[in-house]
Amino acid sequence: METENIREIVNGQQLPQFIGKKVSVTGLVTNVNPNCITFDITTSDNKTVKVNLKKPYTDLLEGYVEVHGTAQSSVIICDEVIQFSDPASKEFDVAAHNTLCQLLHTVPDLWRTEKYVAAHNTLCQLLHTVPDLWRTEKY
Questions:
Q1: Contact assessment for residue 21 and residue 112, using Cβ atoms and an 8 Å cutoff
Q2: Which one of 4, 8, 15, 115 is at 20 to 30 Å from 21 when CA atoms are compared?
Q3: Cα(71)–Cα(11) distance, rounded to whole angstroms?
């Protein structure tokens, strides 16, 4: 089992609880430093998080991004930036993502609960029966 890609999905408020650990934080790019080495995001719980890159980012940073890296208080030392497409950025459900972050850290073994198993099974069925599920209003 590969463990190098395991990280906690957190919001801005939870970030300080994971200092020194690998995290994934999603947020809206709000400020890019001219040196292209740091930028700020506003997370799903409306907290500002500074992202420190290991090398300058050469593409335009805007909209929503998912940042993978190591937590250091309200800063992330970034390993990877995944930029959402323009349509995905416009449709990103901030409230749902924030709820996910909260549930992941308040429900012990969430992935082993009956509700998760039932939801997972339903999602699997939908994926194979509803064409373009990701583009529907229900998703």
A1: no
A2: 115
A3: 11
Within a domain: 2: no
What are 54's two structure tokens?
A: 């290991």
In tens, the pLDDT along 37-96 reads 999 999 999 999 999 999 998 888 999 999 999 999 889 999 999 998 888 888 888 888
Q: Report the predicted TM-score, pTM, of the whole model to 2 decimal places.
A: 0.74
Q: Are residues 48 and 88 in the same domain?
A: yes
Q: How many CB atoms lie within 10 A of CB 121?
A: 10
Q: How far apart are CA 122 and CA 75, in angstroms?
A: 37
Assess whether 53 and 91 both reside in one domain: yes
Q: Are strands 8-10 and 22-32 parallel, antiparallel or unpaired?
A: parallel
User: Domain check: are 91 and 119 in the same one?
Assistant: no
73 and 133 inside one domain: no
Q: Are residues 99 and 133 in the same domain?
A: no
Range of the domain at 68: 8-106
Which residue from 39, 104, 29 is spatially nearest to 78, judged by alpha carbons? 39
